[in-house]
Amino acid sequence: MSVFFEGKKVRLRSIKKEDLPRLQNLMGEPETRRLVGEVFPVTEGGMEKFYQDCQETKDRIWMVIEDRETQRLVGETGFLRIFYPWRTADFSLILWDRRYQGQGYGRETAHLMLEYGFNTLNLHRVAIGVPAINKRGVAFWKSLGFREEGRQIEGFFSDGVFSDFVMMFLLEGDYRGRSGERQGS
Ligand SMILES: CC(C)(COP(=O)(O)OP(=O)(O)OC[C@H]1O[C@@H](n2cnc3c(N)ncnc32)[C@H](O)[C@@H]1OP(=O)(O)O)[C@@H](O)C(=O)NCCC(=O)NCCS
Questions:
Q1: Structural domains in the chain (count)
Q2: 3-state class of 64 per DSSP?
């Protein structure tokens, strides 16, 4: 199956080998790298390894994000460190192409993935860690119902300065309450 989910703005599908050059190129975007804490150069070997890791769906389910209209690859999203006995997973969502940020692509992608996570994978808890310097990121997760549960104090280092890492989570009950509200509205 190529397209896994389709929304109004985005299509989510599994990663193909042909995606690697564009993804590697996008992953060089300096401001987004800074906001998500990427510090090492993106190498071809690293991309190949990433591709191989994405073929295994046991504890990771990864997808690329396409702009539905143009089918341009604009980012990536996925669950990682999935642990089915505890029904937990970490979540990631990055719109590497900055031209697509701030237009609802992130929100739609997150809704598709959270729906899948809670209602198909049967997750109970989804967590995310965001550098505190990424104020938009923190606001974004809050807008989706994620709550802050603590901070790794000075757990993040960027541009010569230590800052906090904000740990956030969303439980299935919170998610179902919110999606019920959306459907009722
Ligand atoms: C963070 C990110 C995923 C958000 O996706 P997006 O498509 O840009 O955001 P959306 O347009 O869907 O906005 C959804 C909500 O997030 C919040 N938000 C988005 N941009 C914001 C900003 N600049 N300031 C404050 N809140 C913001 C708002 O609540 C917004 O809802 P609204 O439009 O109804 O006000 C995206 O910008 C991104 O990939 N950024 C770089 C990587 C990153 O930070 N990833 C996540 C952190 S690990």
A1: 1
A2: strand
| Sign of the CA dihedral with 37 first, then 39, 42, and 46 last | negative
Q: Which domain holds residue 87?
A: 3-184
- Report if pTM > 0.70: yes
Cα torsion 32, 36, 40, 46 to 10°: value is -90
Count the neighbouring beta carbons within 10 Å of the beta carbon of residue 27.
20
Q: Is the pLDDT of residue 184 over 70?
A: no
- Apex 149 CA angle, 144 and 152, nearest 5: 115
CA of 111 to the centre of ligand 1 (A): 13
Longest Cα–Cα distance of the chain, Å, equals 48
CATH number at residue 33: 3.40.630.30
- CB 77 near ligand 1, within 6 Å: no
